[in-house]
Amino acid sequence: MIDRREIISKLRKNKSSHVKIAVVDMDGVLRGKFMHREKFISSLESEFGFCSVVFGWDINDQVYDNVDITGWHTGYGDFSAKIDESTFRLIPWQEDIPFFLADFESELSLGEQVCPRTLLKRIIAQAHQAGYTPIFSQEFEWFNFLKPDVANMGSFKEMSPITSGMFGYSILRMSDNFEYFRDLCQLLEKFDVPLEGLHTETGPGVLEAAIQCAEALESADRATLFKSAVKEIGKKHGILASFMAKQTKELPGCSGHIHQSLWDSSKQTNLFYNGDDDTQMSPLMKHYLAGQLHCLPEILPMFAPTVNSYKRLTEGAWAPTTLTWGFDNRTTALRVILGSSKSTRIEHRVVGSDVNPYLAMAASLASGLYGIKNKLSLDSPHTVGNGYEDTRSGTLPVNLYEATSRMSQSKLASELFGEKFVDHFTRSRFWEWRQFSEQVTDWETKRYFEII
Asked: Are 19 and 213 within 8 A, CB to CB?
């Protein structure tokens, strides 16, 4: 851990007079600015103001008309933000400009009640208090398109993927775009977002990257920074990266699977592993898994936050639709990966690439801890074979409205995350559904315009 004096020394030696800082909004999008080095150094001692609209608008900067914490009725004043010194990085593709993340953790700031990063920190603190160290990692699938002249582009549909055909794990396609692959691996490593693996996925222009595991907060930081960094690096190669969960009905969707395990406070022992059990699963792991299954339908919008998310969660599309778990089964919601004392873990397969990593990891950890706290038994039998056909424990809500309605009324969700957060977050998801519902789509026009 770098200390403050060393940070200040590095900043003053850096050729950039300004520092880049960012916070994350409800959709997981980084919002930030440049701050003069001296102003930044003074802000390390206390806090700085960040406009509260960051939690009061949607992904297109349209202000919510249905939330309480900020809005025209509050005048959109500042919330008090705190720089996290441990997030110090240099951006290698931007002349090593210094970069930091900030959040809203001050009790004096209303932002503390709804900040996604602060929520995850609170859940992690609960794990630490119980003697657990959560080790997480996230992997992403995403589409990559040749970036046209936007001024002359009539539709995103006019873009061409960087590769053609269905060619997963293709060495040939990796060679076709070697410079892009090279920069993703090397520049992300320098940016302290190290990749465990990178390969082509099935589908034209689709890639998948697995980020190296870390403690949960660092893992969420890496996942959030990864999405933004890939877009920035891609643009330097004339490539537009898209993390939509479902690009088209003809192709599989894009996942954002989260791998998770609990370790002891010294990070030496994987508490999920039990070599003496027939399944190699410890009682703690079974409670954790039971908690995730129990809570999942109540908090689904934290894993599937957009209208588009639910287009991915369809049968036969490599994404789950049922409340299921299984051993190394990629058709279930939760995939138990057994192995050594180091590798035993749970993969949450509901999560899409459009997710806010802080919220998805907070939801994963909180629901697992709920199962441990309440000693929930793993009554649901594991799925053998096709998880789409296993509806014994129920199915997932089928759209954002249904999922948000359930979460907004859930006492369990309020218990896990607090009433203020649940109220604000679900209102933001109802807003998202309303924006979609007001639109006239191409499908409607093609279906009804002439014939009906």
From this structure: no
- Residues in the chain where the model's pLDDT stays below 50: none
CB atoms within 10 A of CB 84: 17
Nearest to 286 by CA among 219, 334, 351, 249: 334
Between CA 237 and CA 424 the distance in angstroms is 38
Question: Do residues 258 and 303 lie in contact, with contact meaning Cβ atoms separated by under 8 Å?
Answer: no
Q: What pLDDT is stored for residue 339 in this prediction?
A: 87
Alpha helices in 135-253 (DSSP H): 171-176, 178-190, 216-236
408: phi then psi, degrees, rounded to nearest 5: -65, -25
Sign of the dihedral through C-alpha 265, 269, 275, 279: positive
Confirm whether pTM is higher than 0.70: yes
Contact 124, 134 (CB under 8 A): yes
Token pair 């397969």: residue: 349
Write down the number of H helices and E strands in the chain.
Answer: 13, 15
Q: Which amino acid is at 103?
A: D
pLDDT of residue 150: 58
Residue 121, token pair as written in the block: 């920190």
d(CA 370, CA 416): 8
Kindly state the tokens that stand for 296.
Answer: 């999942």
Give the Cα separation of 363 and 413 in Å (integer): 9
Q: How far apart are alpha carbons 89 and 19 in whole angstroms?
A: 10
Please give the pLDDT value at position 109.
72
- For residue 249, CA distances in Å to 310, 314, 316, 442 come to 12, 10, 12, 14
**Strands 133-146 and 160-161, bridge-based pairing:** antiparallel
Q: What is the rounded distance in angstroms from the CA atom of residue 260 to the CA atom of residue 223?
A: 14
Among 75, 86, 89, 99, residue whose Cα is nearest residue 21: 99
The per-residue pLDDT for range 325-360, each reduced to its tens digit, is 999 999 999 999 998 999 999 999 999 999 999 999
- What is d(CA 164, CA 200) in angstroms, rounded to the nearest whole number? 11
Token pair 């900043």: residue:
11
The identity of residue 256, as a single letter, is G
Strands 258-263 and 345-348 come out as antiparallel
- Could you tell me if 237 and 147 are in contact, meaning their C-beta atoms sit under 8 angstroms apart? no
